[in-house]
């Protein structure tokens, strides 16, 4: 598997009564067996706010860049959950599930992939 891009963004309301502005979407674009694929992780933004104080030190790269959780959440999910490769989208609506993604993460791998993707 070759990671092509990682990105994340905060959703915005399309309709006035929509709850979309409470969610973030993280995406990974990758190549597997010669095919271009993508994976999206949708989660409640509040989960990110709860996680950030716990892992803020790990989000700093060697060159001092601060990684955003929304930019790497889908990547971490792909690295952590083996069945994520078989899915195109995943919605996490439980805080403990989202927080568990970031337990036992090999941050050197994440930073290495991030650096490689940025250089492409």
The count of strands amounts to 4
**Order of strands in the sheet with most strands:** 1-2-3-4
Q: Give the ordered list of helices and strands.
A: EEEHHEHH
Share of residues in strands: 25-35%
In round numbers, the mean pLDDT is 91
Radius of gyration: 14 Å
Query: What is the share of helical residues?
Result: 25-40%
Distance between the termini: 15 Å
* Envelope shape: globular
Number of helices: 4
Description:
The chain is built from four helices and four strands. It has a four-stranded mixed beta sheet. The two termini are 15 Å apart. The chain is globular and about 40 Å long. The mean pLDDT is 91. With 120 residues, the chain is of the alpha+beta class.
Outline of the structure:
With 120 residues, this protein is α+β, with helices and mostly antiparallel strands. It has 4 helices and 4 strands.
Describe this protein with a few key phrases:
4 helices, four-stranded mixed sheet, 120 residues, alpha+beta, globular
List the helices and strands and how they pair.
Elements: E1 2-10, E2 23-32, E3 35-44, H1 45-55, H2 69-80, E4 89-92, H3 95-101, H4 107-119
């Amino acid at each position: 598997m070759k990671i092509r891009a990682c990105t994340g963004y905060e959703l915005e309301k399309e309709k006035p009564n929509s709850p979309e502005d409470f969610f973030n979407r993280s995406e990974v674009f990758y190549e597997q067996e010669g095919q271009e694929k993508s994976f999206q992780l949708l989660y409640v933004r509040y989960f990110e706010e709860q996680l950030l104080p716990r892992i803020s030190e790990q989000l700093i790269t060697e060159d001092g860049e601060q990684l955003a959780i929304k930019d790497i959440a889908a990547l971490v999910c792909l690295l952590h959950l083996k069945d994520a490769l078989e899915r195109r989208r995943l919605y996490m609506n439980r805080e403990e599930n989202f927080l568990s993604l970031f337990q036992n993460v090999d941050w050197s791998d994440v930073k290495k992939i991030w650096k490689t993707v940025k250089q492409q």
